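Hey team,

Filing this mostly as a record. A colleague (T.K.) asked me to run one chain through the structure pipeline before their review meeting, and I want the input and output archived in the tracker in case anyone asks later how it was produced. No errors, nothing strange. Just documentation.

Input sequence:
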Amino acid sequence: MILNDLASKQKTNLPVIIIGAGIAGLCASYYLTKKNISHIILERGEVANTWINERWDNFSLVNPNWAIKIPEFGFGTKFFPSKNPDGFLNKSQTIEYLKSFGGFVGSKIYTNENVDAVTKEKESYKIVTSKRVIRSDIVIVASGAFGNSYIPKINSDLSNNIFQIHSAEYKNHKQLSEGGVLVVGSGQSGAQIAEDLIESGKEVWLAVSKCGRRLRKYKGKDSSWWNYKMGLFDKTVDEVPFNDRWKCSPHTSGGRGGHDINLMDLYEKGLNLCGSVYSCSGNKVIFNDDLYENLKFSDDFAINWSKRVDDFIIRENMVTPPGSVIRDKRINKGNINSVPEMTLSPSISSVIWATGFRYNFDWIKLELTDKNGHPIQRRGVTRHNGLYFMGLQWMHTSKSAQFIGVGEDAEFIANDIRSKYIIDKRQDLES
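Output structure:
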């Protein structure tokens, strides 16, 4: 039973409202159900909507199967779609997995119902959807880890004859115009999409940003395994400075059973490398003179990470296969030259902006965010009584938005709701 007013013990049967039926919303629902807390889920599309509509066809998770720790549904359970701990779920497997988990949780999910606004009236929340108005004392916002697609405003300076999409809209090479492609940004999405396009036979240019590369395997173990053992997944927001939390995600791939993505390898396969984008005008793109520095940063990232692993191995007195990461001699300032500018049309007809996402919670009509546009919260708990977040990047730890950690945060929030707003019927009778 949810309480409007703990002091007066006035009871109401209004459910908790969860906004979003992705993995975060479903995990929250799971733990609420376990605690017999009434709730419903509102979803703007369908279950796993983001995975269906905002991932490319050849997408795979970047963490191995063993790292998927969804309650009662993770790797090793009868429900998991693979028995290979070191494999990686692809897009279709992930979608079916999430839909199966939604069925397993068994909560009422209202699909194709967008939440247009959330306001607060006295002690309850008014949720205006595309179909109705709902009031509830408790709202859990699980509308996505990344927010809205972000494209720099300079894209509007390009000619209308250039086909432009964000990486979240990319599916495969067939949706692009004839001719070459410029991919802007070399984080996880940009590097993987560039590789996908190269393998499709497209002529591809990649505007390289300051992003590291993440080794797939090192000394016999996946990089995710090392990060897990070293406690990097458990680093909290209190331990990692803000700017370090929001650096470009290092690129790697879970495709084809998992493999490295090294931009220099792709360069040798025909990928054209450019510096980061400075400006656009008509059919022209102007690049920064930072290609060498950005490639070197990527290489340094991998080397420094391997040294960190080596130090951990020594401290823990571990026995591992031999191995080392040496500097890529192909990254030579004399050999790495970025073109200062490029004329797109007619040879290059498409631009994919792999430039990340930005949170947008304007539809929640409350003072909610900091100067960076990030929700002000503590492990999902906000300063507004009864308003929670789930599944945000770095909500609590680096794994808060990942399959390896979202369940832990969901349990914490369910416990917080119970402790603050719920009276157990048995305790009520005993008193």
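Quick notes for T.K.: Residues 181 and 204 are 5 Å apart (CA to CA). Residues 149-353 form one domain.
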